[in-house]
C-alpha cells in the first residue's frame, strides 16, 4: 500500500482525498499556489509544497513543479482529483516514467477515450450501443453532406478532440450544413488544434445518465449504478441525483451491463464514468467515457455506501475488486454551490466570505473547503461547496435539500443557493420530469427584498 500520496489539486476535492488517505493511514502532501496559501487542504495535509503563483498554468498545471514536489517529499503516488491534469495523458505518462503511481488511467487509456471518434469506435466494437452516425472522422464537406443525407436530419456534428459540448453543432436542415461544418471545424482547430469532425443522428431532448464503474488491474470491472446529470447550464452540471427518476430496474441492468462491457473490453483500470444519452423511449447510447473521479461522485457514495476515493487507491495499489455490482439503497441529490450571481447571468462572484453558517443534520453532507473569513480567489472555477442530501425517498431528499438550502448562510459573496432553492420548487423538477433542455426553459424569479 502507498505510504504517501501527493494530491495534485485544490479546493474541496483535495480535502476529500486527504480525508480518505488519513482514514487509510496514508501520509498526504498538498500542493498549492500562492493564492491558496490559507486554503484548508494545505492545513489538513501532513506536508505542503508551494508550486507557483496563482495562475493555474504556473501552478496546478505545471507538471515539472508537481513532479518536483513529489520527488522532494518522496511521495509514491499522485491523486489528480478532477479537472487540471486528471485527464492529461502526458502527465500520466511522466508519473509512470518517474515511478510515481498515477491514481487514474494509463496514458494510453486517456488518449484512447480522449479522442471521441476513437472512443466511439472502440465502444461500438465492444458491442456498446452507440448513436447511428459516420464511420469515424468525416473526410471533407462532400463526405459530410453524403453522411448527413444517409443518416437523415437532424444531425449533430462533433469535434473528435472536443467533449463537454465544445465544437458541437446541431443541424436541422441541409441548407444549414455547410456553414455549421465550417464554423465547427474552425472552433475545433482553434480550441484543440485538431479539426477532426464526426457526425451522429441528433437525439432530441435526451437525458444525460452516467454509470459509475471501477476496473481493477486484472481487467475485471463492476458498476455502482447511475447518476442523472441532465440539469445543466451551458454544459455545466448544476445538480445531480441517483437513482435517476427516469430509470427502471430493467434499464439499469442494461446500462450497467453495457458500462461493464465497455470497461472490460478496454481493460479499464480505476474509477471511471460511462456517459450515455437516453431518449424518451429509454433507448440509450454511448456518449463519452471519463477517466477521472467526478465532481458528483458523493451521491453514488451515499446510496451504495462505498468510498470511491478509497476504491481508487485500492485499485491503484493492485487490490482486486470484489466483482459485485452496487445498487442504490437510498436517494441522494447534490447541488453544486458556486460563487456566482444567478441574478446576473451566473457571473462569478469571488471575494471574502465574511460570515458562513453551514447546514447539517441527518442525511446532510457538505463537501467544501471554505470557512468564515476565507477569500475565494478569482483564478479558479467558482464551485465552493457541494451540498448533498440523502433520504429513503426522492421527495424526502428534496425536502431535506430545501431545508438545508434555507439554513445555508454565505455572506460577502453571491452564490447559486437561491437558484437551487427555486429549482427545488419547480413542478417539472419535483415530478422528475426533466431532460437536458430543462434549463433552457427555467426562469429565475426575482430575489425577495431583504
Ligand atoms: C448529443 C446530443 C444529442 N444528440 N449527441 C453535449 C456534450 C457532450 N457530452 C455531448 N452532448 C450532446 N450530444 C447527439 N447525437 C445532445 C448533447 C447535449 C447534452 C448532452 C448531455 C448533457 C447536456 C447536453 C446539453 C446539450 C446537448
UniProtKB/TrEMBL annotation:
The keyword ATP-binding applies. InterPro entries: ACC_Biotin_Carboxylase (IPR051602), Acetyl_CoA_COase_biotin_COase (IPR004549), ATP-grasp (IPR011761), BC-like_N (IPR005481), Biotin_carboxylation_dom (IPR011764), Biotin_COase_C (IPR005482), CPAse_ATP-bd (IPR005479), PreATP-grasp_dom_sf (IPR016185). Its EC number is 6.3.4.14. This protein is a component of the acetyl coenzyme A carboxylase complex; first, biotin carboxylase catalyzes the carboxylation of the carrier protein and then the transcarboxylase transfers the carboxyl group to form malonyl-CoA. The keyword Membrane does not apply. The lineage of its organism: Bacteria, Pseudomonadati, Bacteroidota, Flavobacteriia, Flavobacteriales. Residues 120-317 form the ATP-grasp domain. Residues 1-444 form the Biotin carboxylation domain. It catalyses: N(6)-biotinyl-L-lysyl-[protein] + hydrogencarbonate + ATP = N(6)-carboxybiotinyl-L-lysyl-[protein] + ADP + phosphate + H(+). This is Biotin carboxylase. Acetyl-CoA carboxylase is a heterohexamer of biotin carboxyl carrier protein, biotin carboxylase and the two subunits of carboxyl transferase in a 2:2 complex. Pathway: Lipid metabolism; malonyl-CoA biosynthesis; malonyl-CoA from acetyl-CoA: step 1/1. Keywords: ATP-binding, Biotin, Fatty acid biosynthesis, Fatty acid metabolism, Ligase, Lipid biosynthesis, Lipid metabolism, Magnesium, Metal-binding, Nucleotide-binding. Coiled coil: none annotated. It is an enzyme of class 6 (ligase). SUPFAM superfamilies: Glutathione synthetase ATP-binding domain-like, PreATP-grasp domain, Rudiment single hybrid motif.
